[in-house]
Design a protein that fits this description.
The chain has 213 residues and is mostly beta strands. The protein contains 2 helices and 15 strands.
Length: 213
């Protein structure tokens, strides 16, 4: 009996240690939008529905601000479950910052789109390392979406499969390369979720982030 109790206590301690080592921070509590700030370019785009973050109704962006209202990341891992619906378009911005309106000018967009008319599909680094025409996810089904940034290296995975692997060149000049996207470069910043248009409905849940050295 004593050995059984000791074994159980060891398992508990190991479990706590493993959680502490993981250092993942939950970004969404499934109940409300605590820790997030929407620019409300179109009001009401972001709601919570049965534990899911629903994005629907028009162009707007919601930015992760965290518990201290000042969340910033340089090197990090991000993971979430994402579900698109027919014809929907969304995106996950990285190294960005709060902006009152318009498409976020700072940072990169990681695309979320299975069947929208835009040929740039889920899992691509928008306009930089795109996934074209054939999406790795299906509407109406949850997919695992992960993003990792280490130094100048960005990796995007959908359901564990790498869809974009890109290193920002030392001489990267987005003004020359992308023309209308001068802020597309790595620095530091937060995560933002995109509401794209009135016909797009996308869902997010189980959002986590982990800062890396």
């Amino acid at each position: 009996m004593k050995q059984t109790i000791l074994a159980l206590l060891s398992l508990i301690v190991l479990g706590i240690s493993a959680q502490a080592e993981d250092n993942w921070t939950s970004m969404f509590n499934g109940k409300d939008l605590s820790g997030w700030k929407s620019n409300d370019e179109v009001p009401g785009v972001y709601t919570v529905e049965e534990g899911k973050l629903k994005v629907s109704g028009g162009r707007a962006h919601i930015f992760y601000v965290g518990a201290d209202n000042n969340a910033k990341f340089k090197n990090f891992e991000f993971k979430a479950k994402v579900m698109t619906t027919a014809g929907s378009n969304s995106g996950i911005y990285i190294h960005t910052e709060f902006q009152e309106k318009g498409w976020p000018e700072k940072g990169y967009e990681c695309q979320v789109n299975s069947t929208h008319t835009d040929i740039k599909k889920t899992g691509g680094l928008y306009a930089v390392k795109d996934v074209l025409n054939d999406a790795p996810n299906k509407d109406g089904e949850w997919c695992d979406y992960s993003i990792k940034v280490e130094g100048k290296h960005i990796t995007i995975k959908i359901n564990g499969i790498v869809t974009a692997d890109w290193t920002e060149p030392e001489d990267w000049d987005p003004i020359k390369t992308l023309k209308n996207m001068p802020g597309r470069k790595l620095s530091e910043g937060t995560i933002a979720l995109q509401g794209h248009d009135p016909k797009s409905t996308t869902y997010y849940k189980d959002l986590f982030i982990k800062a890396l050295p």
